[in-house]
Structure formats: structure tokens, C-alpha cells
Write a structure and sequence with these properties.
157 residues; alpha+beta; two-stranded antiparallel ribbon; 5 helices
């Protein structure tokens, strides 16, 4: 059975099930010999990434599906390490807004606690980018310009 990434993500695999499904992966998509699983899957999926850093179409049909956000972070760090150029680091806000006068949240949560929150659909405290890096928007920034939740964006400069 051929599964597209959108079909899989939307839960439309075409098989009735009760939350679980078993299917065989074709041998031609399996990576069997490797020392480091992260580098193996990245190099297999993004073969020739160094020559295609600014090619907007290169990433259109390539996805790596991971089981946890921790693995996403490992994959992202590895991809950034093989992209040429200098890495730029951006940090999130370090505290809850004190303008929220009706709330005492800013007194209850330390900067260290806020900086270590990692959960789905919530950006990490540290964002690392390079020219050629592709990332996904998590919020609707400007719908009229196509900057919507789920949009993939490439850093050009």
C-alpha cells in the first residue's frame, strides 16, 4: 500500500482500524546498514542537500516522520550541522508579561522553568537557523501573504 504523507497525517490510510494498523514497508525504502540512524535517514532523505540549499523545490516532497519531539530535535540539529554557513540562535521571551496585572503567573514561574518547556505546537526557547534551513510556522502570522500555521518557510538570508 502506498501512503502519502498527507494521507497518513490526516489518518486516512484507507483501512478500517481501531487506532492501530500494521502494514509492511517495501524493502526499497528501508535503510538497513548504518552506524548512526539520524545521519543515515537524513542523508537518505536529503541526498545532495549541500548542492540544493537554496533550491525551494528540493524539500517539497521530502519528509522525515519521527515518533517523538526529542527525535525531531536530533534530526533538526543534524540537518543544521551539515548545512553550510554560520548558525544564528534566537531565544524566546524569558518571562511572563508583567502587564497581566490580574494574574500572578509571572511570580509563580521562573525563567529557567519557562525556558525548558517543550511540547507539541509550542516553540522551544532556543531557535537555531541557517541560510537554507526549512522550518514550519506554528502561528498564523499574515494570512494574506500565505504565512499561515503549517506553512514551510526557507531562510534565504
Amino acid at each position: 500500500m502506498k501512503l502519502g504523507s498527507l494521507q497518513t497525517g490526516d489518518g486516512n490510510v484507507g483501512i478500517p482500524n481501531e487506532g492501530e494498523v500494521t502494514f509492511e514497508l517495501p524493502d526499497d525504502i528501508l535503510i538497513k546498514n548504518y552506524d548512526d540512524p539520524i545521519s543515515a535517514i537524513v542523508n537518505s532523505t536529503y541526498d545532495g542537500i549541500g548542492n540544493n540549499v537554496t533550491n525551494l523545490n528540493f524539500f517539497n516532497e521530502r519528509d522525515i516522520l519521527t515518533p517523538t519531539n526529542d527525535v525531531v530535535e536530533l534530526v533538526n540539529d543534524y540537518v543544521l550541522s551539515i548545512l553550510p554557513g554560520d548558525e544564528k540562535v534566537y531565544l524566546s521571551s524569558d518571562e511572563i508579561s508583567k502587564q497581566e496585572t490580574k494574574s500572578s503567573l509571572h511570580d509563580n514561574y521562573s525563567t529557567e522553568y519557562l525556558n525548558n518547556i517543550k511540547c507539541s505546537a509550542f516553540p522551544n526557547h532556543v531557535l537555531k537557523l541557517k541560510v537554507g534551513a526549512v522550518f514550519m510556522l506554528l502561528r498564523n502570522l499574515d494570512q494574506s501573504k500565505g504565512l499561515c500555521n503549517g506553512t514551510s518557510v526557507m531562510v534565504l538570508e
